[in-house]
């Protein structure tokens, strides 16, 4: 294995002097004396693609990461040339390319701040062993620069001073700095001088990122093959960088069905059927909301995918129907390894059709997974993906399974030192045949994609729901994900928090951890604290290996059950808020979770904060991560925030002690926010929602909030049948005004809003509802003083 370091510069080769350039619409080609060509494409004013070849010609331009829906088009483009350099100017960026050595500098077009600068720039080492090059890029570190992103790295949010590797890896019981683990997302954001930019290195070979680790003033990235091919994405706001990266690599193709945002219960494994039913009944009996129950590998016949163990599950269709009648969706696991068994139809068919991966010299890729010796479909071949998606017909259409969980798709192979395929395995790579060195990082992604296609087809007109363990950039288009085999320790609670935030700032928001820990067993206190964090993760599932005892909300003691219930209920109340945030993700790539640095990058205190995060855009959360805590110190970002439990208004921009006994956790709401809430239900759409509560947090000034709703499943919303309400709040010393703007054709089931006002600094004397004065005494109110108003109000004035 070649592990390159920047210091090993003996074999490095560099571009020489640029001889000429050529322009082709939005693309420039700069050719050096030694045949190095830099292809620079202007995708948008703030998004540039840099691609280099050392041979004068480029490889076929193919990427699994970049979506065909990526937006292109710029407002301004100009090139100038002087003796030393070429200067390309867009409305957002100025790019210098030095004639002598091709090195690049990028400036903010508005104020000429230097944003990013090549150190050595593009260089490479020839690889005799594999052919091609080890391609490298090095950049100068700016004064006080911080680095974020890179997927699921279980490390401090700020990556400065560290080196990481991207190679999708099965990592049972990984630890705080284990690297690499399950995902390869070669995208990072740099931040300095209050300006953020992103770099997406779209290269699927094993790659490395070094953030001022080896040399204090240099950040570099390199890969063991392929092209130097990266996108430079300018903000200057970090959220814009992530949104633009998401625009390039894709937003989720559709909203999840709302039930997928409910609470999910999983274990390896619930079987037989009577055990599954016992669990689901217990949820209903104890009135703990839950929407999904999972079937891990033991539902299958000898771990053969797409089969059932008929002894344990004699009539899956009936079981799924009965669970469905009780409000449970069933999610089943499907792994990539297909058992070598001549009697097994999936195996036979794939063998006949030549769909399995092969070694370089012809034999099949044989490896051990749960079923024993297996062959593995080549998901990088379109025909194989089509076939795979077709295999879901029975499971989805006939049996009625509503979600599929793709696991072991790194691909994981047992009992071999590298835990995966050897390098020489061949892949189709959508008609660009290659070895596993290139296809490894996308194998799981392509499996999840094929699974997604199957669900989409056979679950239609319902929306697909897929979960994957392995991922490369772009996988967020098809599926949700979880963080793999964690451990029931307090440290892993910390890791789960960092990973979910980091994934969200890496364009993959639909993420959660195995709540409570997969390996080993948590104490009731740890489980409770983990559920408290977990309800603020987009994907909310308890899962455990089952080796060390039970992990259902009632497996500890009654106090645990009660607190867990209270927090899961809160999750269900907040569903319209989360669903609205999801709409914003699907619509323009806005991350569901925002680390404080993304929320307020100008406040330098946020650059090294890791624990606190914003759920959606208005709720600040900070998990308790230690035993016996009665509260904790946390950083409250700038602005004013209401304590969710007490309504106390606190001024941010500083650290603060926040009380949080075991039945509480630090939660704050941004002043001016309007938070929509559903009533508690035992599962999504258990009841028709007749009324939505709006928790209104007074602010002197203005704030905007939104509420999205639709049929909670299906595709009607894509044809305009959704309801998007924008609330504009304006607070004055003796008046609070709430204006509503409505959009979309969907008629919501609810008829009224229940307004609960928090922190009003005056006594209400009068209400004006759509320009009509309503004496306060005439308002319909409940015992807490919350007011009921028609959902279609345009403007309410609450006057003191
Ligand atoms: C892997 C998965 C885990 C699953 C187990 C059995 O370890 O990560 O979630 O329960 O396999 O399928």
Automatic annotation (TrEMBL):
Key word Hydrolase present? yes
What molecular function does GO assign, one term? Answer: hydrolase activity
Q: What residue stretches are annotated with the Glycosyl hydrolase family 31 C-terminal domain?
A: 589-675
Segments forming domain Glycoside hydrolase family 31 TIM barrel: 254-581
| Glycoside hydrolase family 31 N-terminal domain sequence ranges | 38-210
Q: Does the keyword Plastid apply?
A: no
User: What would be one Pfam family of this protein?
Assistant: Glyco_hydro_31_3rd
Q: Which InterPro entries match?
A: DUF5110, Gal_mutarotase_sf_dom, GH, Glyco_hydro_31_AS, Glyco_hydro_31_C, Glyco_hydro_31_N_dom, Glyco_hydro_31_TIM, Glyco_hydro_b
Limits of the DUF5110 domain: 691-759
Keywords noted in UniProt: Glycosidase, Hydrolase
Which family is this protein grouped under?
Belongs to the glycosyl hydrolase 31 family.
Q: What is this protein called?
A: Glycoside hydrolase family 31 protein
What is the scientific name of the source organism?
Kordia aestuariivivens
């Amino acid at each position: 294995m070649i592990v390159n370091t920047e210091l090993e510069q003996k074999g490095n080769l560099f571009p020489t002097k640029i001889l000429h350039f050529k322009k082709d619409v939005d693309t420039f080609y700069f050719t050096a004396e030694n045949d190095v060509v830099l292809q620079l494409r202007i995708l948008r004013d703030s998004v540039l693609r840099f691609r280099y070849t050392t041979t004068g010609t480029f490889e076929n331009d193919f990427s699994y990461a970049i979506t065909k829906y990526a937006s292109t088009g710029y407002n301004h483009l100009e090139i100038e040339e002087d003796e030393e350099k070429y200067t390309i100017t867009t409305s957002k960026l100025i790019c210098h390319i030095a004639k002598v050595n091709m090195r690049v500098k990028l400036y903010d077009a508005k104020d000429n701040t230097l944003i990013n600068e090549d150190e050595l720039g593009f260089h490479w080492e020839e690889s005799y062993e594999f052919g091609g090059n080890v391609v490298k890029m090095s950049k100068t570190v700016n004064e006080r620069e911080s680095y974020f992103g890179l997927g699921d790295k279980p490390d401090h949010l700020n990556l400065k001073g560290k080196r990481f590797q991207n190679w999708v890896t099965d990592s049972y019981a990984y630890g705080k700095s284990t690297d690499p683990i399950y995902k390869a997302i070669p995208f990072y954001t740099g931040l300095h001088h209050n300006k953020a930019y992103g770099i997406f290195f779209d290269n699927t070979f094993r790659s490395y990122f070094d953030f001022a680790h080896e040399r204090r003033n240099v950040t570099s990235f390199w890969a063991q093959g392929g092209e130097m091919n990266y996108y430079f994405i300018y903000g200057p706001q970090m959220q814009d960088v992530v949104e633009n990266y998401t625009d390039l690599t894709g937003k989720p193709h559709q909203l999840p069905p709302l039930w997928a945002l409910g609470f999910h219960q999983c274990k390896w494994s619930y079987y037989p059927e009577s055990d599954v039913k016992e669990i689901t009944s217990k949820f209903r009996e104890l009135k703990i909301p839950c929407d999904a129950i999972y079937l891990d590998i033991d539902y299958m016949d000898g771990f053969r995918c797409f089969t059932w163990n008929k002894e344990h599950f004699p009539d899956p269709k009936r079981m799924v129907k009965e669970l469905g009648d009780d409000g449970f969706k069933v999610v089943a696991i499907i792994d990539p390894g297909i058992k070598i068994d001549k009697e097994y139809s999936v195996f036979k068919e794939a063998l006949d059709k030549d769909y399995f991966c092969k070694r370089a010299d012809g034999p099949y890729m044989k490896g051990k997974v749960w079923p024993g010796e297996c062959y593995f479909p080549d998901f990088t071949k379109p025909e194989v993906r089509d076939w795979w998606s077709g295999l879901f017909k029975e499971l989805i259409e006939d049996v009625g399974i509503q979600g599929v969980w793709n696991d072991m798709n790194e691909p994981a192979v047992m009992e071999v030192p590298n835990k995966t395929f050897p390098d020489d395995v061949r892949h189709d790579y959508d008609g660009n045949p290659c070895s596993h060195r290139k296809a490894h990082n996308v194998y799981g992604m392509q499996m999840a994609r094929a699974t997604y296609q199957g669900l989409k087809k056979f679950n239609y007109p319902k929306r697909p729901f897929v979960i994957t363990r392995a991922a490369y950039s772009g996988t967020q288009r098809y599926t949700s994900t979880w963080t793999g085999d964690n451990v029931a320790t307090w440290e892993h609670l910390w890791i789960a928090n960092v990973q979910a935030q980091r994934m969200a700032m890496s364009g993959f928001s639909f993420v959660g951890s195995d709540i409570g820990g997969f390996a080993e067993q948590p104490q009731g206190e740890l489980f409770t604290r983990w559920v408290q964090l977990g309800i603020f993760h987009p994907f909310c599932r308890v899962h455990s290996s089952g080796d060390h005892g039970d992990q259902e909300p009632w497996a500890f003691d009654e106090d645990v059950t009660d607190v867990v219930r209270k927090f899961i209920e809160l999750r269900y109340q907040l569903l319209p808020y989360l669903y609205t945030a999801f709409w914003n993700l699907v619509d323009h790539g806005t991350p569901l979770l925002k680390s404080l640095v993304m929320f307020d990058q100008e406040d330098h205190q946020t650059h090294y904060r890791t624990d606190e995060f914003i759920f959606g855009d208005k709720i600040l959360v900070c998990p308790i991560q230690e035993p016996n805590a009665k509260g904790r110190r946390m950083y409250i970002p700038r602005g004013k925030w209401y304590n969710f439990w007490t309504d106390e208004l606190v001024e941010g921009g500083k650290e603060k002690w926040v009380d949080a006994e075991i039945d509480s956790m630090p939660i704050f709401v941004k002043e001016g926010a309007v938070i929509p809430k559903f009533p508690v239900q035992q599962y999504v759409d258990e009841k028709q929602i007749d009324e939505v509560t709006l928790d209104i947090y007074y602010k002197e000034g203005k704030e905007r909030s939104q509420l999205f709703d639709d049929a909670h499943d299906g595709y009607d919303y894509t044809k305009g049948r959704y309801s998007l309400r924008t609330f504009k709040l304006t607070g004055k010393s003796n008046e609070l005004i709430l204006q509503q703007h409505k959009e979309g054709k969907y008629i919501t089931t609810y008829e009224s809003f229940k307004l609960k006002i928090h922190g009003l600094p005056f006594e209400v004397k009068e209400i004006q509802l759509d320009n009509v004065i309503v004496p306060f005494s005439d308002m319909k109110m409940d015992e807490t003083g919350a007011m009921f108003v028609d959902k279609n109000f345009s403007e309410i004035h609450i006057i003191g």
